[in-house]
Amino acid sequence: MSKPLNGKASLVTGGSRGIGRGIAQRLAEDGATVALTYNTSRQGADETVAAIEGSGGRAFALQADLADARAIPALFDLLDREFDERTGSKTIDILVNNAGNSGWGGLADATPEAWDTMVAVHARAPFFLVQSALGRLRDGGRIVNVSSGAAARAMAAVPIYSMAKAAINNLTHALAIELGDRRITVNAVAPGWVRTDMNAAVRESADMVKAIEADTALGRFGEPADIAAVVAFLASDDGRWVTGQVIEASGGYKL
C-alpha cells in the first residue's frame, strides 16, 4: 500500500495527547518519521511513540516547554541530531504547530500571568518555531497550524484563548505570503468541539453535550482522527495548491 508521506520528516508539537497524538499517529501511518514534543506528559509521549512503533511507524519524543521561547533553539539542536541519526538528514518536511494549554478562564478571573502563558504557547511559540525551522524546512514543505473555531467565533468563557488563536490565523496568512516563493504551503486547521481531555469537564454535563451536538450539523463531537485527516491532506502532495487558508474542521458547528 502506497504511503503518501513516505520518507518525510515531521515535527508535531504537543503530540503526547489529544489532537496532537492523533496527528502524530496519522502522519506516521502515512509514512513520515515523526518527532513529537511534550512538556509535562512524558507518559503520554511514551505511549504515543509506542503506539506508532507498534503499528510499524517511526517516532521519537523530545521534552520542550514552549512557554519559554528560549527553549526553541535548543529543541532544534536536539532535532538536528535525532533526525540526522534516523534519516541521514537534518531537513524537516512538515511542521505542525499544535501545542497548547487549557484556555478556560474569563475576563473577571484572568491574571497577567495566565495571559502571558496562554499567548506564549498558542501564539508566540509557533512564530519562533517557524523561525527556527526555516533553515531546516525543505522547499516545497508544509506548515500546518492548529487553530480553533473560537478564533472566528470568540467565546466569552475563553477570551485569551480566542484572541491567541485569532493571532494564529493572521500569522498563517502572513507566512503563506512570505514562504510562497519556496513553495512552502502554510495553512491552519480550526477544530470545533473534539473529544479530548481538555474539555472532559464539559462532557460531564449531559445537557452541555446535548446542546453542542444539537448545534453541530453532523451531530457529534469530533475525534482527534477527524482533525488528523485534514492535517494529513494538507501535508501530502494532494495539498500542494492550498495555502494561506484557515480550514474549519468542526462538523458544521453553529452553521
TrEMBL record:
Leader peptide range in chain numbering: none
* Membrane-crossing segments per the record: none
GO MF annotation terms: oxidoreductase activity
Q: Which domain of life is it from?
A: Bacteria
> Which key words tag this protein in UniProt?
NADP, Oxidoreductase
Is Zinc-finger given among the entry's keywords?
no
Q: Which InterPro entries match?
A: KR_dom (IPR057326), NAD(P)-bd_dom_sf (IPR036291), Sc_DH/Rdtase_CS (IPR020904), SDR_fam (IPR002347)
Domain Ketoreductase residue range list: 8-193
Q: Does the keyword NADP apply?
A: yes
> What SUPFAM superfamilies does the record point to?
NAD(P)-binding Rossmann-fold domains
Q: Name one Pfam family in it.
A: adh_short_C2
Q: Which family does it belong to?
A: Belongs to the short-chain dehydrogenases/reductases (SDR) family.
**Protein name stated in the entry:** SDR family oxidoreductase
